[in-house]
Design a protein that fits this description.
The chain is an alpha/beta fold and about 400 residues long. The protein has ten helices and 19 strands. It folds into two domains: about 180 residues, FAD/NAD(P)-binding domain (3-Layer(bba) Sandwich), CATH 3.50.50.60; about 150 residues, D-Amino Acid Oxidase, Chain A, domain 2, CATH 3.30.9.10. The strands form four sheets. Strands 5-6-4-14-15-16-13-17 form an eight-stranded mixed β-sheet. The chain has a six-stranded mixed β-sheet with strand order 8-2-1-12-19-18. The mean pLDDT is about 95.
């Protein structure tokens, strides 16, 4: 008889023993933290630890609604997200993982004359910076989305839309897993179930990270924790103008594919897409109150379902399957905070509001470049935290009036 052989289960990344010292400690095991770690290894910086208090992708990366686009309003924002989208287009090949990326097109609906004017403004900025974006009207909208109610029956009839053909969706979990796998293969230590309890600062620079599994000596700490940014920054005495708001979404039962574009309406505060599993994914704007709750609420479900039905009456008899919430770290100008702070060795990648997932690849590249070289890349220079004190705001609210 052949002896019984026992095999260890195959894992995408390993469980490493925590070392007492690392060159770089990244707080947050979501898409951004893992992307930064991966890009650092490409630059030869491999003594890196990623600390995640829960499991990989448990925060905003696993709770977002997978939309990626580049049709922002400010020149700084458009240039940044344009590069993010370009990197997303080749990310599956680079990470050797099927990310289910589908560039099906993105429609920002306009229900009023002012909204049409804003769409034209965004379109002009987009095209001047090389982003495919244009204003279209009901006849062309109907060809792209025949199931959309384009009649004059709704309370807010659709007058036009900003059409962004390269916009699409990508599997959020797959992005997290792919980055984690490659970072691990390149030598990064990923520590799950490891909460940061404090960060020591001496002579104006970080020296140690305290965790639930022991202390780590380091001279470089990166905060990539989305809605918890202000909590981590407070550990080193850095004040950030960030308020955390809940954001909710839900999906319906699976349906045969019928929705070939992403729909966004700022007037109705709703966005709709169909997932690769056939579910209709519906979300809304951030809640108006500050909270760390990630629970879904009945009020959100009632209001958002009503507004979704104004766009797509055919969903009237479709059943809701599940709902969830996430946390959004919102800045006064609706643009992110990236880069160095007044505390030496403490960097922030936060303040993303509802569109951090869209920026994942370029965040990894630019933050890794900053850590490795000490020089601030041009793409992220406008997003320094010092802009709030220097009155150099990058107001992105025109492109973020609804969450996606």
């Amino acid at each position: 008889m052949h002896p019984i052989r026992y095999f260890q289960p195959w894992r995408m990344w390993r469980r490493q023993e925590m070392k007492p010292t690392y060159d770089v400690v990244i707080v947050g095991g979501g898409a951004h933290g893992l992307a930064i770690a991966y890009e650092l290894t490409k630059r030869g910086v491999k003594d890196v630890a990623v600390l995640e208090r829960n499991y990989i992708g448990a925060g905003g990366s696993g709770r977002n609604t997978t939309i990626v686009r580049a049709n922002y309003r400010t020149p700084e924002g458009v240039a940044f997200y344009k590069e993010a989208l370009r990197l997303y287009e080749q990310l599956a090949q680079e990470l050797d993982y099927n990310l289910l990326f589908s560039q099906q097109g993105h429609l920002t609906l306009a229900h009023a004359e002012r909204a049409v004017n804003v769409a034209h403004e965004r379109s002009e900025v987009n095209r001047l910076l090389g982003v495919d974006s244009r204003v279209i009207y009901p006849d062309e909208i109907a060809k792209l989305c025949p199931v959309l109610d384009l009649s004059d029956h709704p309370e807010f009839p659709i007058m036009a839309a900003l059409y962004h053909p390269p916009g699409g969706v990508i599997r959020h979990d797959a992005v997290v897993w792919a980055y984690a796998r490659q970072a691990d293969r390149n030598g990064v230590h990923i520590h799950q179930d490891t909460a940061v309890t404090g960060i020591d600062v001496q002579d104006g620079s970080v020296t140690k990270v305290r965790t639930t599994k022991g202390d780590i000596s380091t001279r470089m700490v990166v905060s990539a924790v989305a809605g918890w940014t202000s909590e981590i920054a407070d550990m080193v005495g850095v004040q950030v103008p960030i308020v955390t708001h809940p954001l909710q979404a839900f999906v319906t039962e699976p349906l045969k594919p019928f929705l070939d574009v992403i729909l966004v309406s700022a007037t109705l505060h709703v966005y709709v897409s169909q997932t690769d599993r056939g579910e209709v994914l519906i979300g809304s704007e951030i809640e108006p109150y500050s909270s760390y709750s990630q629970a879904s609420t009945l009020d959100f479900l009632e209001v958002t379902a009503k507004h979704a039905l104004e766009l797509l009456p055919i969903l009237g008899r479709v059943r809701l399957m599940r709902a969830w919430g996430g946390l959004c770290d919102v800045t006064p100008d609706y643009s992110p905070i990236m880069g160095e702070t007044d505390v030496g060795g403490f960097l922030i990648d936060g303040g993303w509001g509802t569109y951090g997932f869209k920026a994942t690849p370029i965040c990894g590249v630019t933050m890794a470049e900053l850590i490795d070289t000490g020089r601030v890349p041009d793409l992220i220079a406008p997003f320094s935290v010092s802009r709030f004190w220097d009155r150099r705001l990058v107001s992105e609210i025109a492109a973020a009036a609804v969450s996606h």
